[in-house]
Amino acid sequence: RGLTGVIHPSITSLTHLTHLNLSHNSLLGSLPDDLFSSLSSLQVIDLSFNRLIDHLPPPSNKISQLQVLNLSSNFFNGKIPSSILVPSVSIFNVSNNSFSGSIPIDNDSNHTSLTFLDLSYNKLNDTIPPGIGLCSKLQVFRAGFNSLSGSLPDQIFNLADLRQLSLPVNSLTGPINDGIMNLTNLQTLELFSNQFSGPIPSQIGNLSRLENLLLHINNLTGPLPLSLANSTKLSALNLRVNNLTGDLSSFNFSPLQRLTTLDLGNNNFTGELPKSLYSCKSLTAIRLANNQLTGQISPEIVALESLAYFSISTNNLTNAAGAFRILKGCKNLTTLVLSKNFLFEPVPDDESLGDPDGFQSLRVFALGGCQFTGQVPTWLGKLKNLQALDLSFNLITGSLPGWLASLPNLFYIDLSNNLLQGGFPNDLCGMPVLTSKEASDKVDSSHLELPVFVKPKNASDQQYNRLSNLPPAIYLSNNSLNGSIPIEIGRLKFIHVLDLSHNKFSGSIPDQISNLTNLEKLDLSYNNLSGEIPASLKEGLHFLSSFSVAYNDLRGLVPSGGQFDTFTISSFEGNPGLCGPPTVHRTCPQPLSPAAGPRSNSHRKLLTGLIVAIGYCIGFGFGFGFGYKQNFIVI
Ligand SMILES: *[C@@H]1O[C@H](CO)[C@@H](O)[C@H](O)[C@H]1NC(C)=O
Ligand SMILES: *[C@@H]1O[C@H](CO)[C@@H](O)[C@H](O)[C@H]1NC(C)=O
Ligand SMILES: *[C@@H]1O[C@H](CO)[C@@H](O)[C@H](O)[C@H]1NC(C)=O
Ligand SMILES: *[C@@H]1O[C@H](CO)[C@@H](O)[C@H](O)[C@H]1NC(C)=O
Ligand SMILES: *[C@@H]1O[C@H](CO)[C@@H](O)[C@H](O)[C@H]1NC(C)=O
Ligand SMILES: *[C@@H]1O[C@H](CO)[C@@H](O)[C@H](O)[C@H]1NC(C)=O
Ligand SMILES: *[C@@H]1O[C@H](CO)[C@@H](O)[C@H](O)[C@H]1NC(C)=O
Ligand SMILES: *[C@@H]1O[C@H](CO)[C@@H](O)[C@H](O)[C@H]1NC(C)=O
């Protein structure tokens, strides 16, 4: 109803009130002190989705009729008094607040009516009380995204009606023990992002109603239990980032006909790609990245008609040409991540791969780190839906193709760490998504079926759940590109990252780079650029947080002001001709180099003194040291 303001204390005069529903308003302030003690007839309280704050008022055993209490999505804090959970309550939802302390269940309490208990997204920081086992009617128990610690109490396995056990993103430890098999009604088991250890219970397949098994990001060991094939209702299975082992091809996936997403990535599975997987007709996403799988992609995979996401990066697959010929037949593939396989094979260049019957739905194509030889294959130019292309860390030769700009949706190109030669083609400066607002606005922001990860060389993996969150970027670092940076570069107005480092570019830095007003990272280091750093850069590039022109042949005054005051000497070192802070030559020689021209001469002299003064005051403390030296690879 758009209600605002506080809940007036006079509401407590409505002593016969049974239902109070003020949800989805903009109510502020704290609850009237005697709310619970006065409204003793209340059966239903729903105050969810408001802006209520503060501690809960002292509860009272007078609210003995209460069945539904929903205080979720507010800003309540303090402890949740256990006396508020009177025996009659069946639905209790306080999720998405800032409550701290313990789960409000005493070890001798009698919550035999409680069916839904949702405590997720708070700051609870105790262990899970054994008393939970006395809530014998409990069907849904959610307490994820807190700071709960300790292990799962055995009593939790008494909850025979439990359909959903959701405790992700806590600090829970210990094993998931065999008691879990008592929970025969379980449909969702979500324990991801904890520190559970030990094996997955071998008889977990007895949970025949299981639909979602999400145990990723723990410390689980041992094999994928063979019994899981008996959980034929399974739809989502995510065991990513554990220490699971064993030959994956010995697991029979074929009974799992409802399986839609499978993520077994970042484990230590061995063996060949399990062929039985190809009979799980509902699969839309498979991620087996970062294991030790061997062998080849087999033709049966085309039977997976709904497959949209397939990532098998960082394994030991062979025969890229065969793999591409087969995968081309997966008509609905939008995300294909094959990075770090097929070592030292030629990059498949069969022109028919780009035919109208091949790869036409592809949006992400990641082929980094394969040590592919050959040139950038021209059939890629036919993949009109392509948005992100990663060919980094290969041995690709030839020139940087300007025809990449003919791909109407492409906004992320990584060709870094290859052997490309020749110049930066003017055509590439016309990439539609990077030059036109219309095209840039059209970038699809829907969720990927599973995330892709973009791994900086030396940091933890960065996770992208939507493609539209990838930075619009051109990475060309560490090739042998030469010639000058074309002035047309100024057209790439929507680019966020431009990395031309470790090449042989020469000539001056074009003024037009200052037109790239969305630029966050600009790396021109380790080239043979000469002339001055255009002063215009400091005016246009308001978002620049990472900048380097180190190790070139630049001279003259380093621009100051704007973002330039945040860059340290490391951004400029290796250019003996540069002067002014933060370089080692704190003042420029007088007179300034002739190249500076009469236009800016006096203006600069004036500034120099000023900058030196400021320079001493702020020292070298600023700057974002992270960033531009990272090399990314989509995995
Ligand atoms: C309260 O009202 C909202 C909006 O009409 C409704 O969605 C919600 O189910 C109600 N809450 C209860 C507990 O009935
Ligand atoms: C609790 O409320 C939140 C919204 O604030 C909702 O998303 C969640 O599904 C509810 N929990 C249960 C168990 O119904
Ligand atoms: C994971 O388990 C192994 C032994 O199984 C242990 O050495 C390691 O410390 C554990 N790691 C974490 C993060 O708990
Ligand atoms: C699946 O369940 C059947 C019947 O309960 C049982 O005989 C079989 O051993 C189970 N399969 C696996 C792989 O555990
Ligand atoms: C450039 O690439 C080569 C080959 O991949 C690699 O050995 C070298 O370390 C890279 N250099 C830089 C500066 O990244
Ligand atoms: C990676 O990180 C380690 C520790 O932080 C550091 O010593 C090392 O120099 C880094 N390597 C690179 C290539 O940045
Ligand atoms: C691009 O940059 C040039 C030189 O800095 C400037 O004259 C021009 O107005 C800019 N164009 C646009 C569209 O911003
Ligand atoms: C760098 O550029 C200059 C011209 O500006 C040229 O004379 C020199 O040979 C180049 N050096 C390298 C290593 O390419």
TrEMBL record:
Determine if Cytoplasm is one of this entry's keywords.
no
What is the membrane topology here?
Single-pass type I membrane protein
Transmembrane spans: 606-628
Q: Which PROSITE patterns match?
A: LRR
Please state the protein's primary subcellular location: membrane
Which Gene Ontology cellular-component terms appear in the entry? plasma membrane
Q: Matching SMART domains, A to Z?
A: LRR_SD22, LRR_TYP
Q: Which residues form the Disease resistance R13L4/SHOC-2-like LRR domain?
A: 100-333
Q: Which UniProt keywords apply?
A: Cell membrane, Glycoprotein, Leucine-rich repeat, Membrane, Receptor, Repeat, Signal, Transmembrane, Transmembrane helix
Localization recorded for this chain is: Cell membrane
Q: Which Pfam families match?
A: LRR_14, LRR_4, LRR_8
Q: Which domain of life is it from?
A: Eukaryota
Q: Which family does it belong to?
A: Belongs to the RLP family.
Spell out the PANTHER family in the cross-references. Answer: LEUCINE-RICH REPEAT-CONTAINING N-TERMINAL PLANT-TYPE DOMAIN-CONTAINING PROTEIN, UNNAMED PRODUCT
Q: Which protein are we looking at?
A: Tyrosine-sulfated glycopeptide receptor 1-like
- List the gene name: LOC110750001
